[in-house]
Amino acid sequence: MIFSYFENFDKYLFLKINTVWTSPVLDAILPWWRDKNTWIPLYIFLALFAFINFGKKALPWFLFVLATVAIMDQLSSHFLKEYFDRVRPCNDVVMRLKERFLVRHRPQSGSFPSSHASNHFALALFSF
């Protein structure tokens, strides 16, 4: 019963954000922001920053960052998504009729947890 409450609230909130609380500025920015290629300059900057400031001492840090992100990516993509098996709103038959689509790419994998958010969180947690 409690799970159905959260699922219904989640759908309600998603539709509210997607159809009512809209912004043309955010509609233009967020699809670009979610593209993985957008973040490549940040990754290059972080790597250069580490190597310029710490020299060879940065190599173990860099390798552990890669390992941390790889582990989190595998954990979120293959274990947690399969465990929770939550359908993405764009793949839900009922939700598809009500939502606005701002991007063409609609992954077929589960939607929870977000792999890119998990990876960025792992990177931030390890870095600080």
From TrEMBL:
It comes from the Bacteria. Keywords: Membrane, Transmembrane, Transmembrane helix. It holds the Pfam family PAP2. The chain crosses the membrane at residues 12-32. InterPro entries: PAP2/HPO, PAP2/HPO_sf. Residues 63-127 form the Phosphatidic acid phosphatase type 2/haloperoxidase domain. Gene3D superfamilies: Phosphatidic acid phosphatase type 2/haloperoxidase. This is Phosphatase PAP2 family protein.
